[in-house]
Write a structure and sequence with these properties.
Distance between the termini: 21 Å
Number of strands: 10
Order of helices and strands: HHHHHHHEEHEEEEHEEHHHEHE
CATH topology of the largest domain: ABC transporter transmembrane region fold
Strand content: 5-15%
Largest sheet: 4 strands, antiparallel
Number of domains: 3
Number of helices: 13
Radius of gyration: 34 Å
Shape: elongated
């Protein structure tokens, strides 16, 4: 999760839309056109050399000048393409944030301010595009000059040969040579533009390849993982000298935490904002791994802290086996687009009667049965067609349906109206965090 915490949403969207499109579509066409242009250019140069050998004296220094010009152009355009790709990410991010908060923006009359910010971001994006066009004109001027020089040299050599009394039968061959000489400029321009465009698309591939360097979580499955449903049997949890930080270089969020929760106990963790309540849950689910050293008091000193469930160290387990053994109701309720049944029972392990019972325990069955489709009622993305309190209760029903020995709740009823919700919630869990 560290990557998503430190990366703006627009950058992720940019890489999986614009950059991915350049690799999948643009790169293939550019490589094909580069090969075709290279073959046509080689044929044109071959015709010129065979029919006008003296033209080699001009072609060799022109080739050196051409390579020098191409290298300058490639280096500039490649960096401009990087700037252009980076400049699109803030626009994607702002567009998404504006849509999420459009009601608040209109309520506070911030339309003009957002419009000005959007124009400023567009200006930042257009600058490298404008400079890219300027570089293209700079290159085009030199390519046209070199093409004109080749054509003029070929024509001069043809006139020189006719002036020396050459047979008129060669007039057609000379015309054929002049036609290829005139096309040199277009071929040079096409080759370098497509080659540079191909290289720019490789910049997109380079940006996508950096995703492979993102630090991965621990393995989902390990050979020594317990069989599903066989662990934990009791749900006893013990924290022993636990140190945890969210990212290297940050202060520890947990400093030497010792905590013991017996089987069947209900424990509530209370503290002010930033005290580390949610950090305990993050360490328990191994969303962030435990720290290996104390950077604040004794640099380099190793830590032997661990978290045990029923006496088993959770670091020796696969993440899938660990997380599936516990149920969690997060502070921000999460629902996905689809049916209510698919949200409460994504794996399809429970019957409709069991799902109905879980909904009844949270006091929402009257609401569900009056909706079209009942359990098959549509849920919009992020549960937008439901109130925030209803979303939290449905998350609670989803956790109850799993029947886990350990249930973790992070302010799970913060948006629930206790006066309106008169049902008695009696979940069968052994450990409770809030």
């Amino acid at each position: 999760m560290r990557y998503f915490d430190t990366t703006i949403k627009g950058r992720i969207t940019n890489r999986f839309s614009n950059d991915l499109q350049k690799v999948d579509i643009g790169l293939q066409g550019n490589v094909k056109y580069v090969l075709v242009t290279l073959a046509r250019g080689a044929i044109a140069v071959g015709v010129l050399v065979v029919n006008a050998p003296w033209l080699v004296v001009i072609l060799v220094p022109m080739a050196v000048f051409y390579l020098h010009t191409m290298n300058h152009y490639r280096a500039s355009v490649r960096e401009l393409q990087r700037l252009q790709s980076k400049g699109a990410s803030p626009i994607y991010a702002m567009f998404s944030e504006t849509l999420d908060g459009i009601v608040t923006s209109r309520a506070y009359s911030r339309e003009r301010q957002l419009e000005g910010l959007n124009l400023a971001l567009l200006d930042t994006l257009i600058r490298p595009s404008y400079l890219n066009s300027c570089c293209g004109q700079w290159l085009n001027l030199r390519l046209v000059t070199m093409g004109a020089l080749v054509s003029a040299s070929t024509a001069a050599l043809a006139v020189f040969e006719f002036g020396q009394g050459e047979a008129p039968s060669k007039a057609g061959l000379v015309g054929f040579t002049l036609v290829h000489a005139l096309s040199i400029s277009d071929m040079l321009n096409g080759f370098i533009n497509t080659f540079t465009s191909c290289e720019n698309n490789l910049v997109a591939m380079e940006r996508l390849n950096r995703l492979r360097e993102v630090e991965q979580e621990a393995p989902l499955h390990l050979p020594e993982d317990p069989a599903p449903g066989s662990w934990p049997l009791h749900g006893a949890i013990e924290f022993k000298d636990v140190w945890m930080r969210y990212r290297p270089g940050l202060d520890p969020a947990l400093k030497g935490l010792h905590l013991s929760v017996g089987a069947g106990e209900k424990v509530g963790i209370v503290g002010r904002r930033g005290a580390g309540k949610s950090s305990v849950l993050i360490a328990l689910f191994r969303i962030a791994e435990l720290a290996e050293s104390r950077t604040d008091s004794a640099p380099g000193e190793e830590i032997e802290g661990r978290i045990q469930i029923d006496g088993k160290d959770i670091r020796g387990m696969g993440l899938a086996a660990l997380r599936q053994s516990m149920a969690i109701i997060p502070q921000d309720p999460v629902l996905f687009s689809g049916t209510l049944k698919s949200n409460l029972d994504p794996s399809g392990r429970h019957s409709d009667a069991e799902i109905q019972k879980a909904i009844e325990e949270v006091g929402l069955w009257d609401f569900v049965r009056n909706r079209q489709g009942c359990l098959e009622m549509e849920v919009e993305g992020k549960g937008e067609n439901l109130a925030c309190g209803q979303r939290q209760l449905f998350c609670l029903a989803r956790a109850l349906l799993r029947g886990s020995k350990i249930m973790v709740m992070d302010e799970a009823t913060a948006n629930v109206d206790q006066a309106a919700n008169t049902s008695s919630i009696t979940p069968n869990f052994s450990t409770f965090f809030s």
